[in-house]
Amino acid sequence: MHASLPRRAALGRLLGSTALLGGASLGLTGPALAQFRVEIAGVGATQIPIAIGRFRDEARSPQPLSAIIKADLERSGLFRSIDATASALDDTSRPAMGEWRSKGADALVAGSVTVLADGRHDVRYHLWDVVKGQDLGGLSLVVPAADLRQAAHRIADDIYEKLTGDKGVFSTRIAYVSKVGSRHTLVVADADGEGTQAPLTSVQPIISPAWSPDGRQLAYVSFEGGKAVVVTQDVMSGRRRVVASYKGTNSAPAWSPDGRQLAVTLSRDGGSQLYVVGADGEGLRRLTQSGAIDTEACWTPDGSQLYFVSDRGGSPQIYRMPAGGGNAQRVTFSGSYNISPALSPDGRWMTYIGQTDGGAFRVHLMELASGTVKALTDTRDDESPSFAPNSKMIIYATRSGGRDVLMTTTLDGRIKARLTTPQADVREPVWGPAAPPLKR
């Protein structure tokens, strides 16, 4: 079962690796990788036409602020850009709403960027509801040049929330594993794929990255010591801690919602079973006592239950049990092969990889209250789905053109954005938590 479980090829390596320690480099080494290119493949049922003018004095900024905001909003699939290149508006303007209505805009954005005496940048924007003729307010952020992209993402989040009522995720981060030749790199990037950093590079595989709830650490499985061990690493400082290095394999880390524990899969007592261990590596406790392979645990948002994969019924299916251990209930019944569960932060949904009758591995979505299931993709080799912090999008890996690529999809499956790198295979994406606020 292991060789065909999520991250299917990666787990096969986990079981068979005899790699020796060496080749790793710690600390941030980026920016290092090629940037993503986003391709919108679908069209939403409704899109808000929005005009985003070039910010006043944006030419003096090292970042194209209005273009970043525009790309963020378009990637969500909920917005359609209206040409505003001739606009001379800024955040202090009083735009003629009738003029913008005649251009087909429902919303209008204008702003400015000013270099302050201390070298920081004062970024301001304003948003108007053109249809209602309402001033929807704006935002002012004072940031160093290095944070200008984040400032643009924050503004996109603000616009998204004001116009949809949902939290934006443009200022969040993702993590994934990149492979070029024999070099494996753990990559952290902005949600749009820009601003890449490389917390770890190794000639040995890196698998199963998982964000801590505060976004400060990543847990993952490392093969550097000649066997699979679970490691946590502070993203900024590079400081690492081995939290599970028992006899046999140590795999599939998943942080508890309070960040104090990790659920892991260990084979120390024979077959692969679920355990919890403290984030400091202490207090190991066994959760399952089955004769099957139990793996890939994920926590419910309130920390009360664990969903996991087991072949105890004869084929890989997803089960649920109390977080302290106990009786497990089967959750998936459609299809003979369902793996890689991930729960939405709002607790409403579970995404997973299910194998279709034709043999394809596709991203599926289950509404937990009703048990209703639908496939979100029509590809064949999907892996590792992970929810955005606002529970509105899913990032996953798939094969396209003979390469591993990353995709995002909305929960209705209509809008998919392909995130590509020209030189690397990328896999095992995981969406990080909401970013801490920037100073206003």
Q: Can you tell me the number of structural domains?
A: 2
Q: How do the strands line up in the largest sheet?
A: 1-10-9-8-31
Shape: globular
User: How confident is the prediction overall: mean pLDDT?
Assistant: 87
Which strand-content bin applies to the residues? 35-45%
In CATH terms, what is the fold-level topology of the largest domain? Neuraminidase
CATH superfamily of the largest domain: TolB, C-terminal domain
Function: Part of the Tol-Pal system, which plays a role in outer membrane invagination during cell division and is important for maintaining outer membrane integrity.
Family: Belongs to the TolB family.
GO biological process, one term: cell division
Keywords: Cell cycle, Cell division, Periplasm, Signal
What's the quick description here?
The chain is mainly beta and 440 residues long. Helix content is 10%, strand content 42%. The chain has 4 helices and 31 strands.
Explain the overall architecture.
With 440 residues, the chain is mainly beta. It is 10% helix and 42% strand. The chain has 4 helices and 31 strands. The chain has helices spanning 8-16, 65-75, 97-102, 148-164, and strands at 25-26, 37-40, 48-52, 79-82, 107-115, 121-129, 134-143, 173-180, 183-190, 197-202, 206-211, 217-222, 229-234, 240-244, 250-255, 261-266, 273-278, 285-286, 294-299, 305-310, 317-322, 329-330, 338-343, 349-355, 361-367, 373-375, 383-387, 393-400, 403-410, 416-420, 425-431. A hairpin with a 5-residue loop joins strand 29 (403-410) and strand 30. Helix 2 (65-75) packs across helix 4. The radius of gyration is 23 Å and the shape is globular. The N and C termini lie far apart (51 Å). Belongs to the TolB family.
